[in-house]
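Table S2 (text version). Query chain:
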Amino acid sequence: MTNCLRNFLVSKVTWKRTAQVLLLGIVVPPAIAHAQSLGYEGPTGIFVTPLASTAASPAKGLGNPSVSFHFLAGGPVIGDFSTISITEGFAKRFEIGYTGEIQNPGSDHVNAVNLSPLWNGTMSIVHGKANLIPENAGNTEWVPAISVGAIGRFNDNNVGDGSNSAALHSALSITSGTQTRTNADFYVVGTKVVTQITKKVPWLLNAGVRGTNASLWGLGGNAPDYTARAFGAVAWVFTGPAKSTIILGSEVAQQPKNILVTLTSGAKAGVFDIPTSEVYAVRVVPSPKCKLNLDFGVLQAAGRIGASPTLPSVNVDLKARARVAFALSYGF
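Corresponding structure-token output:
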């Protein structure tokens, strides 16, 4: 870590101006770089979507762990979210990890129809991933890496988990009903670094599909049922000053259409109309000699979540359409 910090400090003056220009001209949260880059929930990935790559490890045995910190300024309605992750790779094709999420509730109770109390507390997240096909397998340069994985969320205190159901009922005019505290994703993803277009600026292409019952990665609580949702990303890798790497990219992630509530009759119902989430990102790798990534971005999560057939009068502005995020990942 000492050499890594020394290289970073020596080069910071050179690439500082470049980073300032990029941040002024681009709306951004994380893109993609090396296998120590962890996403918001812990898997090796972009900001909110996983890559097919896994945390670095030898062909036999465990690799060194990667750690990360993510901060998302979710706005006055849903509040701010922070995650601390550790991910371990093994046998060159697998990774497992744990993420702790801490949420600070928002303060906009009036304009949000008293929704802010719904987002409060902590959440535990575990994940695993297995690489089925390595990139360029069989020495075929167009073969993408293909992986499968799962993400489980526990103690999800977001949106009517039982402890704050009174706020949910008041906000949605429902007299009773709660959610469970768990939800999950099961996904398949393919990733390819393309150099055939231009070797000086490689393209990174990423696409996958997940089966999920989590709304907005659990930040919106549970969806009514498991549904198949697509995700994808594209990024461009540039060589920056002092041998740094600068990656510009964007990702999209479809969300389950509704959030789950239970009506007084006991029937399950979906409320709101959740849009597709978008991310615009910059990732900076200050030096090739250290496994350190700095990510800056903007998450377009959900602005006005529209009315649903169940509750046509509910139409709430979550004020989460341009939320700034920051992340730091380090591989030991």
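Notes on Table S2: The CA atoms of residues 132 and 147 lie 5 Å apart. The chain is about 10% helix and 45% strand.
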